[in-house]
Amino acid sequence: MKKAFVLSCTMLLAGCASYYVAPTEGPKATVTFSAAGMDLGAAILVQNFENDSCASSKNGTRLATFTTTAIQGKGDPHDGIARAMPAGRPAVITFFYNDWSSGYMDASCTITQAFTPVIGGRYLVHFIKSGLICRVLVTRQDGKDPTAVTNLHQVKPACINGTTG
Description:
Elements: H1 2-14, E1 28-36, E2 42-49, E3 62-67, E4 81-86, E5 91-99, E6 107-115, E7 122-130, E8 133-140, E9 147-148, E10 153-154
């Protein structure tokens, strides 16, 4: 049973994902996704949703994949991957962390954050794992110093797309 679960999770990393495609029209903002503190054997799927109800996004689900071992495939750079995202409407983003270092799922956490990017805004959405604690920090990166995102809120329960995520 555990091997079947690990196999299905590996398939999520590799094959069946609906990858995000940036919009070609309308106002946009730049959102950079990054990750730190991952344990060896861990992977993070960063997913995009249409709204707080976790509806699938018409732009695709997978925003980024962060991995720690070559066997997991090619991952995005942990220091950041930028995506153009629609401005003026909610960005609903999930970080789905799994640690398979022992061959079984050793640790997992899922966090969904939502905010509305402004036209031309630049944002950093950064996942941090420290011990048993996972968190996602979202900051606006337009000025000299990062600033808090005022319309940020956590979506509970967290959104997860196990089919095309």
